[in-house]
Sequence to fold (396 residues):
Amino acid sequence: MGHNIHIKKRKKMGLAAASILVFAVTLTTLIYEGTKKTVALTLDGEKVVVKTHAETIGDILDELEVDVKEWDYLSHKPETVLKDEFSFVWEPAKKVEITDDNHSATVWTTAKTVKQLLEEKNIKLTEHDKINVSLNENIVANLGIQIERAFPLVLKDGENEEKVWSTATTVADFLNQQGIALGQLDRVKPGLEEEISPNGEVHVIRVEKVTDVVEEPIDFDVVTKKDPSLPIGTEKVVQEGKQGFIKKQYEVTMENGEEVKRALLSEKKIRESVEKVVAVGTKQRSEEKTPQPEQKTVNGENEISVNATAYTATCSGCSGVTATGMDLRSNPNAKVIAVDPNVIPLGSKVWVEGYGYAVAGDTGGAIKGNRIDVHVESKGQAQSFGSKQVKVKILD
Fold:
């Protein structure tokens, strides 16, 4: 019985020891936990509250296995000593690809928006430049930002000219950006597929085809008839000439409002011309007969000696139309001589020494007696001819 009492005492002592050990462990745990610091962290936008024995910000980041890179944002230095109820922020940098015209670069940033990133990198935009994302767009990992720089150009659209800005690479892109539509016949210089460069020029040539209907005059002919009832050297208009008219339809090509081509489509005569008839007197006036120069017959032909000078159709006071109605301006090479009709009848065929075969088809106020004036093409030829004595054969 005494033995049983001994065993009970030992059991009580064991339970007491175990209780002491549990209490000690519990106390130690309570003391350990009680000495932890409460720290508030904002990690990549997420708020976390932890209790830690870490001494510094670097220590707690290591505990949490946060790999801080040189581009990341950390509100305090890693060696900052932690205190109870301490808070700090860590923002990891994001990789962004920036293409500015033809130059590309990869950057790491903790900027919140595209605008903040551009300001951070000192990248400035003008009002004409283009960017593929909104300036207020949030930065996300692997974001691609593309910037197209605008450059000046001169745009000549028809008769209008202005200086514009563009980011286009080809003429077609440029016109599309400017909202310029081309008509079916319009042309562009340079061509639509050509590349454009800063300070270049783009010409839009506005082309249109219109129909133009006009009435053009038809000149009348002048016909002369000998009239033995009229004194020689006088003329009488028997019938006045009238112009005819012809209606012509043209296709006119206009470029920027100016005519560049005219093609005849059709023509129709709407009124015939009426010829002018002039009677030329051949009746001799006995009281005004001019002494006839000596004539002699050679091989059945009359030959006289005259003083000859030369004239042109464009001489001062000349109309260009002879007394018999011949238009010398339209026929500059015509062989015609001016005569005194009392000596050489108008309309006679003659041969003039040094001049050749001709027609006595004109008169002149200074042409009296044995004197003639030969028609030549130019003033230089008239001056070279001078004044000389020549022989004239009256052939008809």
Q: What stands out?
A: Residues 22-32, 287-300 have pLDDT under 50 and may be disordered. Residues 312 and 318 are 8 Å apart (CA to CA). The helical segments are 2-34, 57-63, 114-120, 171-178, 379-385. Residues 295-394 form a domain with the Barwin-like endoglucanases fold (CATH 2.40.40.10).
